[in-house]
Specification:
CATH architecture of the largest domain: Alpha-Beta Barrel
Number of domains: 3
Distance between the termini: 34 Å
Number of strands: 7
CATH superfamily of the largest domain: Metal-dependent hydrolases
């Protein structure tokens, strides 16, 4: 953080004159005192001292200042990843251990609305793997706008960061759970009325089997479902999304994948993913996909005294704008607008864009550089794989 001092060069000049004048009045001779030399040194070197003090402190995130000429290569950092505590498939331990033998120097676990992975044991594990674990979280603000909030700490977490983020995301997850419960109710309703759908197996289930399935479809089980196996985990997450609800259905063989593949003319290997997408897009629309950006949440995030980065800015932009509006000019206005509101940067090295309509990484870095020229604030360009598996 930059530190400002109220030194004034003109005031020091007056001190010099006063010192010399007092010496003359007292002795009737020009006498250069020790005090005069002290003020002379301050007069000359104060601007230098101020500039040095104003330099950003040597922190981890300084490596990602947009105007830093010595930035890390993409292979050396990954500041967006997810674990079983949100919508990732692996434990924090497995994710951290996967850095072994790679060029990674700095990583961040940025689970959606959760800090559960950021324990002392996992920070210690990062040290053992000779990698820096930077505390982070991905806060969902609605409308596809996600903000990565970082605590500029090396293998440690500040208590004020933990308390501030926990208070914020607890409220978000409680609101989210209302939508999840509603979606579970709609899934049950869909199953009970699916006898006429040729690729659904509900009609072949006995009444006991149907009752068992309905009883299993709960928010609590969604909070514990393993995204790899569909089994129940020992840990409980507070964040639930579409993949969790899909995996709740996985153990019961509810979809005839062969029939689904034939119906929609796709490879049977593609059927599990396509079936889940079809159900949540066409049959049971996921309510959180249609929510607008929540300005109140954005305001709370912007007010946090930590580094706030827009995640995957191009993906968010395309989610919010119609195809005819996907232009460089409008993307520039979009990103500049959120920087002006108080975000400290964006991901200029996002590695998970799929068929983007613009070269968002190049554009993002240039926009951040242009904005940095207009402000005294520190502006950052970060990035990452957004992995939900392990580091590759």
């Amino acid at each position: 953080m930059a530190i400002s001092l109220e030194f004034r060069k003109p005031r020091l000049f007056l001190c010099l004159v006063e010192t010399l004048f007092v010496g003359f009045v007292e002795t009737h001779h020009w006498r250069v005192s020790t005090r005069f030399f002290t003020n002379l040194i301050l007069y000359i070197y104060t601007p230098v001292i101020i500039n040095l003090i104003k330099l950003p402190m040597a922190t981890i995130l300084n490596k990602f200042l947009v105007n830093n000429q010595n930035q890390l290569s993409s292979a050396e950092f990954d500041l967006q990843s997810h674990t079983i505590f949100s919508d990732g498939k692996y434990s924090p331990e497995a994710l951290i251990n996967s850095t072994a033998g790679k060029s990674l120097k700095i990583i961040s676990i940025t689970d959606h609305n959760s800090l559960s992975a950021l324990t002392k044991e996992n920070f210690d594990l990062a040290k053992q793997n000779n990698v820096v674990l930077l505390p982070g979280v991905e806060v969902e603000c609605g409308g596809g706008l996600d903000v990565l909030v970082y605590d500029d700490n090396k293998n440690d977490i500040d208590q004020s960061y933990r308390e501030s983020i926990t208070e914020l995301v607890n409220g978000l997850n409680q609101e989210r759970s209302v939508y999840v419960v509603d979606s579970i109710s709609k899934i049950i309703e869909f199953l009970q009325n699916s006898d006429g759908i040729e690729w659904m197996n509900w009609k072949s289930k006995t009444e006991d089997e149907k009752n068992k399935i309905i009883k299993y479809l709960t928010l609590e089980n969604a909070c514990r479902v393993d995204l790899k196996t569909g089994k129940q985990l020992e840990i409980r997450r507070d964040y639930v999304s579409k993949p969790h609800l899909g995996m709740l259905l996985a153990p019961f063989n509810l979809i005839n994948l062969e029939a689904f593949a034939i119906k929609f003319n796709i490879l049977i290997e593609q059927a599990p993913k396509y079936a889940l997408g079809y159900i949540f897009a066409k049959v049971i629309p996921w309510p959180l996909d249609t929510l607008p950006i929540n300005k109140e949440i954005v305001s709370k995030v912007v007010g946090l005294p930590f580094v706030k980065i827009m995640a995957h800015p191009g993906k968010t932009f395309e989610n919010l704008y119609k195809e005819d509006d996907i232009t460089i000019k409008k993307f520039t206005t979009f990103l500049m607008g959120y920087l002006s509101k108080g975000l400290d940067g964006a991901e200029g090295d996002y590695r998970r864009y799929k068929n983007p309509k613009l070269d968002y990484n190049t554009l993002t870095k240039q926009i951040l550089l242009d904005f940095q020229k207009q402000t005294d604030r520190s502006i950052y360009s970060t990035g990452g794989s957004d992995t939900h598996d392990i580091f590759e």
